[in-house]
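Researcher: I'd like a structural prediction for the single chain below. Treat it as a standalone chain; there are no partners to consider.
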Amino acid sequence: MPLIVDGAHVPTRWLERKLSGQVVEGESCGARTEFVRIALINNMPDAALEDTELQFFELLDAASGDLPVFLNLYSLDGVPRGERGMRHLNTFYQEISDLWDDRLDGVIVTGTEPHHADLKDEPYWRILSNVLDWAATNTTSTILSCLAAHASVLHSDGISRQRLPDKQFGVFRSEQVCEHVIVENLGRSLCFPHSRWNELRESDLVTNGYTILTKSSEAGVDIFVKQKARSLFLYFQGHPEYGAETLLKEYRRDVRRFLTGERDTYPGMPHGYFDISASRALAEFQEIALRHRTEQLMERFPQALITDTLSSQWHSPAMSVYGNWLRHVLSKKVETPVFFPVNDLGNKRQGRRSVVS
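Model: Treating it as a single chain, here is the predicted structure.
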């Protein structure tokens, strides 16, 4: 079964990626009684909004196997947006106020770029808190990614994130430290990308009843869980959804910020990501950039050369984790018999679904 994006419009990049888009009636998914309905609450800044959307589409599509996954798109009010970002949201996303009456099995909440040291000072804090409270009692399971994970533990348990001396940036190897349905068949050793300036301390999490599933000797806690009312909250400090080029794009963005004077220091290369030839080319570019600090130099950034060397070594464990999560959501849905007929799953906009197979 394909990933099924609720609503009349499939975001353009996903439609182009799949090539064979078609709009079908919900009933044409037939007599399938096994399906899950997921909300993706995508709060990433405009520059990463569509990339993040596509990353989650691809991951859920690959991880779902033959399980139909109906996906609704939302974004928080209060996240700063430009004209392009607002136009994209208005075209493809539902209003966050529609969430309260939606019948969903699971929710995925992404982070965004913070503008305040205290997350409670962010303009979207109140609505995000409402989303977290709603998810605890109205879903089977909730995924919190990066900053959303930090916000959730602060909201529910008062756990503050701690500032790191430098950006935790790159691909870090982790070890599974606990048996759990979410990390079944993952193997004992795996790796995921990280990109953050802050961390949650393991001792704070364990003291407050969180279960650590994977952690890294270099990057700290990776995946952890806690039951919140009806919903299993699943937390990622890393980014298993990242594509092969995502860290390169972030690194390039940070290099540009150095050249334009938005940051004082030249960014370090992402850990465990570039091969020897790519690292050498980027080191040569850095030497030039430190001597000639001008934005025009970005025209010589060796992106095309490096792109061919990249691979998403975390893709397989990411598929396993999200596949386990979808099966967990389905199993709990079966246990609690809260099935809704597919023809009652109408989107707030209209009762058709955009299906890309």
